[in-house]
Give the backbone structure.
Amino acid sequence: MVKVNENYLKLEKNYLFINIAKKVNAYKEANPDADIIRMGIGDVTLPICKAAVDAMKKGADEMGVKETFKGYEDSGAGYDFLREAVSNYYKSFGADVPADDIRINDGAKADCGNIVDIFGDDNTILITDPAYPVYVDSNRMSGRNVIFADSNEENGFAAMPDDNVKADIIYLCSPNNPTGSAYTKDQLKAWVDHANKNGSVIIYDAAYEAFITEDDIPKSIYLIDGAKTCAIEMCSLSKTAGFTGMRCGYTVVPEELTAKASDGTVVSLKQLWNRREGSKFNGVSYPVQCAAAAVFTPEGQEQIKVNISYYQQNAKTIAAALDELGIKYTGGKNSPYIWLKCPNGMGSWEFFDLLLEKANVVGTPGAGFGKNGEGWFRLTSFGDKDRTKEAMERLKKILK
Ligand code: PLP
């Protein structure tokens, strides 16, 4: 008789955003006229830029012509033109990442989960709490021991390494989802040194690097000395260029990154990752890769910056309202997320209900991201400018 993976039975029954959607739908059913403003799920609202649309159309046209039609991509790692474009993008801010260490994927979420395939199930996993839920779930699905590093009000939601706590795999996300906090170069160097000293691997999620505005915040872990011997980096065009519905991102496993097998043999993690992908992934569609490459052209970069600034302006609108209300928050500066302390000592879900019912505004309860998220709440700046302003007026009205 079939046996199920019982690790799944120990997970939260639903993914966080499904629980939120259920609550919002129930409210909407009971209050069909409610004008709900959604600032919960981290999805973008602006369309993809013209350079990417034009390149995608051209790519689609090529698929309809015998001479330029493309079937399976040889390696599934991404076309050279895109891997080179990503490598040059890294170069533009001073990081040396060869195209051969980059694999193109259909978004960072899948690889955040897939990467664990190349590591043994007996590894201990350290995850900063609160965290993007995929890190915890994908490791619990394979029954791994997950421990947490506290990101909290005291450390500005930037957990730092503790020499007494040793883990084999460490997940870091900067700029962070959900807290919007971002590691400085010195803070990240401390993590890199800690990982190299202990033979740990850092899985670094840089999905929000495009939102960094401050010079001291690195856009990639590879700007830190020593990172290539301890870190895998994941990035995505979802928030950078509005690709949530297009699906394209990239993962870097450096040539220099190795681990030891139980018999002492030195193993290349890049080779394992290529092996895993060779068997389980057939690459991203050609027109989407054409669109992604266009994002990295000067024209594309200029166009996506316009959209990113739009969201950054929304973040300022949210921050100004919170300042006016005297509510503490992190994020907004190097991140599209604003992470606020629920007023009057309210719990996250309590504040969620209040905001939904009294202001018809939907946010994300911090408790859904881990224990340190309790009492905190995430708002996103990915909405419409006027609706964001309206939401903040409603917030001020109910909290003043
Ligand atoms: N990493 C973080 C921290 C995210 O917040 C998200 C999406 O919200 C992703 C990865 C996944 O992005 P995608 O799969 O759309 O590339």
In short: The first strand starts at residue 37 and ends at 38. The chain has eleven helices and 15 strands. The longest helix spans residues 298-325. The mean pLDDT is 96.
